[in-house]
């Protein structure tokens, strides 16, 4: 086998064991492969805002939409804040239509109980955190980079799911997608950028374990350790399979999705 053959591209999306047990639930973080965008967005780029052509991004999104078996995708202009959007029947009419995506106002977390709605988060080193409350069948997709970790967006999303939908944290499942690993999460300005409490997660000088920070934050909200699954794949180290802003600079954005299939 030639060297090229042995470096066969990984086109599958990263799926999580804990979320794979639920019939009707589609989820995963797509690799960068399998789309139509040219370099440096090759190839499954889902962001309109990185310089890629609109028609190619739409084609990539349609592929994901069709695979998911949902009526439409919902996404937000992500702003590294802590705004959580609840997707319900009445809200949908107010969203912008950018086929096959409905666009909410700016925000970084999406929550729904509706069938046929795919929640889409776009990442390139930031974490996407998928949440499921099996009791109320509420799902969420959270965009959390280091600013999101500081702002506590995962915690805020869990508590909203509890308040609005009666979610039960000890029953909830969480999955943290491929993202910046402790190997590559260097923050030379951490004294200015990160709270002192994050020093507990410093693995060597200036390097922080944001996977462990998210696990701690979710456990603080009542989730159980055994229900939190972390992909453990660093996007910088694995930039051949994933888009990585730190690793590549000008690049695409990965699609992280979760959604109940449409009932037809
Ligand atoms: Zn790494």
């Amino acid at each position: 086998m030639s060297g090229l053959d042995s470096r066969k591209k990984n086109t599958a999306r990263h799926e999580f064991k804990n979320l794979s047990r639920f019939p009707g639930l589609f989820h995963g973080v797509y690799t960068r492969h399998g789309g139509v965008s040219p370099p440096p967005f090759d190839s499954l780029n889902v962001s309109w805002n990185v310089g890629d052509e609109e028609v190619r991004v739409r084609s990539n999104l349609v592929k994901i939409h069709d695979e998911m078996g949902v009526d439409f995708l919902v996404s937000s202009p992500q702003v590294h804040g802590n705004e959580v959007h609840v997707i319900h029947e009445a809200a949908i009419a107010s969203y912008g239509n950018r086929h096959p995506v409905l666009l909410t106002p700016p925000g970084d977390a999406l929550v729904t109980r509706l069938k046929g709605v795919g929640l889409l988060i776009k990442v390139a080193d930031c974490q996407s955190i998928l949440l499921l409350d099996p009791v109320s069948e509420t799902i969420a997709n959270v965009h959390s980079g280091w600013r999101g970790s500081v702002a506590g967006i995962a915690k805020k999303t869990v508590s909203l799911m509890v308040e609005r939908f009666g979610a039960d944290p000890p029953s909830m499942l969480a999955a943290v997608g491929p993202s910046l690993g402790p190997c590559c999460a260097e923050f030379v300005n951490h004294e200015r950028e990160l709270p002192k409490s994050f020093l507990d997660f410093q693995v060597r000088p200036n390097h922080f374990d944001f996977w462990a920070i998210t696990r701690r934050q979710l456990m603080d909200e009542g989730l159980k350790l055994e229900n939190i699954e972390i992909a453990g794949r660093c996007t910088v180290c694995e930039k051949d399979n994933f888009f990585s802003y730190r690793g590549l600079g000008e690049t695409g954005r990965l699609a992280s999705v979760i959604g109940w299939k449409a009932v037809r």
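The radius of gyration is 18 Å. The first helix runs from residue 3 to 6.
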